[in-house]
Design goal:
It contains 15 helices and 15 strands. It is an alpha/beta fold. A hairpin with a 4-residue loop joins strand 12 (323-328) and strand 13 (333-338). Helix 4 (83-92) runs parallel beside helix 5 (106-119).
């Protein structure tokens, strides 16, 4: 069995999850290097993977200045910081797994794909949902014609009120200028799955949504800048004390500090961004958005993304010419109702490794399989999800339906249309 050596750029939450696969399956991957500016994170990562000191770096620039030290690189920095390390790694001859979204800048996405083609290197995007047993089974059912021809797909991305507060009000994805529009950061997954299931490309998109709740105007009377000393915190469902100072120290709590003791977490709320009042942050991304899509094969789709839900879960429904399929990712169960033929239930069993209903495991398995089989994908199809997210955001801001080819024609004089060969499918 071939063991692939890895260098990890960004030893945060996702970098740790992906690289932990190597500790469970050392015959497939070995982590040999890391680049991480945060000293505490870097030292914990080095200790976990027993990395030689001469392969430990504070920056990706220093790592990538060296002679090639591994077979592949995992890039799990913040959204805006993907482009340079990915391009430099590909230039150096590394294969690359990059966390989603590939980049908030659409042109940078295309440049990364072109660079991978030029260097004949694998560029795999961290679309973990594609590799869940749940969506693999759904794809198989549709390919087998179980419900005839799919005519409509709807996905409800229930973000959960506490996740909205953690990631999109207080956290790293709260501000579109510093990260990405929320529809790209959270739901590029969903655009990818919709296209993956329909096996077609989108022609038109319209979208609506806004930031309505998490603003100073809605701050409760008597509230303060931080939850830790707020007089009305007890009545607030978004209280940082409720989210971070309970018994749970797994995600998302483990992202606020490297010290997960009660004292360490309390200090993080007193000093860091996660202790701020949700009504007094510098957030500007939406708290709800809906997208309507029309595809080249005349199928349609809707995507609803909302932070105002109790649970964090995805619901999907596919309507076909001879039946319908409904499923909830969290339950790993698909219900097939064929017209006049009754109901069938399919249950899948995901890996217990990682998160995303087995998708983290599936992604790393795919990375290893592609590298050992020397399958050099160009990631063009997965870029389309970024295009759809950008079009949806433009539609929301402009208040109009947008044609995909018209949108592309406005980028770099329209040369992206010809380069994106799959757009005509």
């Amino acid at each position: 069995m071939t063991t692939i050596s890895l260098a990890v750029i960004g030893a945060g939450n996702r970098g740790n999850i992906y690289s932990d696969f190597a500790t469970l399956f050392p015959e497939k991957f070995k982590v040999v290097a890391v680049a991480e500016p945060n000293q505490e994170r870097r030292e914990e990562f080095v200790k976990k993977h027993k990395i030689d000191r001469n392969k430990v770096f504070e920056s990706y620039e220093t790592l990538l200045e060296k002679e090639k030290i591994s077979d592949a690189v995992i890039v799990t920095t913040q959204d805006h910081d993907h482009y340079q390390p990915v391009i430099k790694a590909l230039d150096k001859g590394y294969h690359v797994l990059v966390e989603k979204p590939m980049s908030p800048n659409l042109n940078e996405c295309y440049e990364m794909v072109l660079k991978a083609k030029e260097k004949n290197r694998l560029l795999l995007l961290g679309y973990v949902l594609r590799y869940t047993p749940f969506f693999q089974k759904l794809k198989q059912l549709l390919a087998n014609g179980v419900i005839g021809t799919p005519r409509h797909i709807s996905i409800d991305m229930n973000v959960a009120y506490w996740h909205q507060a953690h990631s999109f009000v207080r956290g790293n994805w709260r501000n579109s200028k510093a990260s990405s529009p929320m529809i790209l950061a959270k739901s590029c997954h969903d655009f990818d799955i919709i296209q993956y299931l329909l096996d077609s490309t989108c022609r038109k998109i319209s979208s609506f949504g806004d930031l309505l709740h998490f603003s100073k105007e809605n701050a409760p009377i008597g509230s303060s800048e931080r939850c830790i000393d707020c007089l009305v915190e007890d009545d607030c469902p978004y209280s940082a004390k409720k989210i971070y100072l309970q018994e749970n120290t797994d995600w998302p709590v483990n992202t606020i500090s490297t010290d997960l003791s009660f004292e360490g977490r309390r200090k993080a709320l007193e000093q860091g961004p996660y202790g701020r009042c949700v009504y007094r942050c510098d957030n500007d991304v939406v708290d709800h958005q809906v997208v309507t899509m029309e595809f080249a094969n005349n199928a349609t789709a809707t995507l609803t993304m909302s932070g105002f839900t109790e649970k964090l879960e995805r619901h999907v429904k596919v309507l076909g010419t001879h039946g319908e399929i409904y499923g909830e990712l969290k339950s790993n169960k698909l219900v097939v109702k064929r017209f006049a033929k009754g109901e069938e239930i399919y249950e899948v069993t995901p890996s217990t490794f990682g998160m995303h209903a087995g998708g983290d495991f599936g992604l790393m398995e795919q990375f290893w399989t592609s590298l050992t089989a020397k399958e050099m994908r160009n990631a063009e199809d997965t870029i389309l999800s970024h295009l759809y997210a950008h079009i949806a955001e433009a539609s929301r801001l402009r208040g109009e339906t947008i044609v995909a080819t018209d949108f592309l024609s406005q980028i770099n004089g329209g040369n992206r249309v010809s380069k994106l060969t799959s757009l005509s499918r």
